[in-house]
Structures are given as structure tokens and as C-alpha cells.
Amino acid sequence: MSHPLTPRVESALDQIRPFLEADGGNVKLLEITNELDVKLELEGACKSCSMRMMTFKAGLEETLRRAVPEIRSVEAVNLHAEVSE
Q1: pTM as predicted
Q2: Domain 6-76 is in which class?
């Protein structure tokens, strides 16, 4: 069952997706918990980009917090994955 905040979170993510897609990446909403924690997964080039932490903090997290201030936290489950070169 989908969380009531899902449409608002997806709408906020849709605002930043064109920028991610332009560089070969994307983001997927995995879950919104009952505690209002949002779990995301970075996809494509975003998974291994050296700027992924900045993209997450200044882009995804900030956009979500402005659009859906009720959320408690935003986490990218694969944010700390090793960068393979």
C-alpha cells in the first residue's frame, strides 16, 4: 500500500529528475515509512558519480524537504556505495 505522501514526494522528485537524467542518472522512491522517513535509490550514473553526495544533499534532500516539510529524514540506500573506476 502506498503512503499518503507518495504523490507529493514523487512530484518533488520529478522536479529534479531532468537534471539527473541529463547526466545519465535517476532516482527511485523505494519507501516512505510510517515514521516519515523517505528511502531513495540512486540509479544509473548517479550510483557511481563522484558528486553523488552533493547531488543528494543539495538537490534531492533539499527539494524534498521544501516540498514535503513533514518528512523526518531522507536517505539514499546506496549513497555510500563504492565508486568503481
Answers
A1: 0.87
A2: alpha beta
Question: Whole-angstrom Cα distance, residue 62 to residue 74?
Answer: 9
28-38 pLDDT, tens digit each: 999 999 999 99
CA–CA separation, 65 and 38 (whole Å):
10
Q: Please report which helix (H) or strand (E) contains residue 51, including its range.
A: none
- The CA distance from 17 to 26, in Å, is 6
| Predicted confidence (pLDDT) per residue in 21-68, tens digit | 998 999 999 999 999 999 999 999 888 888 888 888 888 999 999 999
Q: Where are the domains of the chain?
A: 6-76
